[in-house]
Amino acid sequence: MIRNNKIIGILFCSAVLLFGICYGVQKRREYVPNVIVGAGLSGVVMAERIANEQGQKVLIIERRNHVGGNVYDYKDENGITVQKYGIHAFHTNNEDVWKYLSQYTEWHDYKHQALAETSKGLVNFPVNLNTIDQLFDVEFAQDFIKRLTDKFGFGQKISVSDLQNDADNVLQKGANILFEELFKNYTIKQWGMKSEDVDPSVIARVPIYLTREDAYFTDKYQGIPAQGYTAMIKKMLDNPLIEVRLNTDWRDVRDNLKYDKLFFSGSADAFFDYKFGKLPYRSLTFEIKEFPKEYYQPRAQVNHGNAPRMTRSIEHKYLLDEKSPVTTVSFEYPEAYNGKNERYYPINRPENAALYKKYMQEAEKLPNVYFFGRLGDYKYYNMDQAVARALELYHKVFK
Ligand SMILES: Cc1cc2nc3c(=O)[nH]c(=O)nc-3n(C[C@H](O)[C@H](O)[C@H](O)COP(=O)(O)OP(=O)(O)OC[C@H]3O[C@@H](n4cnc5c(N)ncnc54)[C@H](O)[C@@H]3O)c2cc1C
Q1: Domains, the chain, ordered by start
Q2: CB of residue 382 inside a 6 A radius of ligand 1
Q3: Does the reported pTM lie above 0.90?
Q4: What number does the ligand 1 atom closest to the CA of 67 have?
């Protein structure tokens, strides 16, 4: 009898202790109405709207040691604004997005231009009629251009892969040379797969323009934030209702936080502890170097399709037209995402879309968790699309 009472007593005390511990842990959880994972453009737009329009508190959790995600830039010791994660030229036809960001920055009038290294030297890129003059002998170039403009019309844009399948032998021959010189190896290096396995939309993203204009983009609004992207992002975050916690991975704090809404702009597989497998991404290594001369190359961007590993070199002083006797250049080397480097490009393949869909079916069971952004939506967004998507989600949730 005494023994039984003892056991009951021990069980009772253990239950009380367990309850106390659970209650304590629960009590110690920090409450914030809105938590955002990722201080990239997507997360920052969401935070800005919630704080400024809803007047609600927001906590941003960011793994890196800075805000801005991939649009982050900084001034180096020579006063050159360096875009740490590769060139970011802003371009959009979306007036709402342009007006929205313009509340937080003035724009330096920058229209992106690029060149590509070929067996015939540097040529204009994306391909236009000038590129054809630079790459082919006069006779072939004239014939090629005439056939192109007769068939598709001056001013139109077409994809190199469509042209390679054209019935006209001259168009086919010209397209095959363009493909070998400018697209094939670039695509193989960038995506780590054979060019025929790359989703056609990826190649079509860099079209052939049947014009004489050397602009990289044709959008109505183009520019670079006059003080840089980081300055713009900091202004957007300048509200006492917004707190940013840098150097913090969501995984390490998720059990300590309570929230009404969670906006997740990280990768969905990581959110669900990779339970269905890893979503593949392409990554890049950026090698940033200083050169003791005023200019290194004739434009901000030069593509190196046929170099062994490198795809692009970017000379940063062009972007804000900064003057200096020295110059800073970054060289880009694509590689697979391996868990230690950064996720940059979702890979557009049916099996990856299917895996992502499985994660989103899990996400549907969590009504107060929203996935968005380049990683959260597993979609190649340009900056304007990332902003538009964040604004759209904000309206859906709060209006
Ligand atoms: C090399 C390159 C060049 C580009 N050039 C252009 C261009 O010229 N023009 C253009 O319009 N667009 C360009 N883009 C696209 C542009 O970078 C994106 O549209 C934009 O950065 C998307 O913002 P985001 O917030 O969705 O993603 P990101 O910038 O990737 O931000 C996501 C943030 O979430 C953080 N995060 C992820 N997981 C966690 C976690 N578990 N815990 C905490 N934090 C986490 C990350 O550290 C990151 O800061 C380029 C992209 C790349 C990669």
Answers
A1: 32-67+237-279+347-399 (3.40.50.720), 125-209 (no CATH)
A2: yes
A3: yes
A4: 49
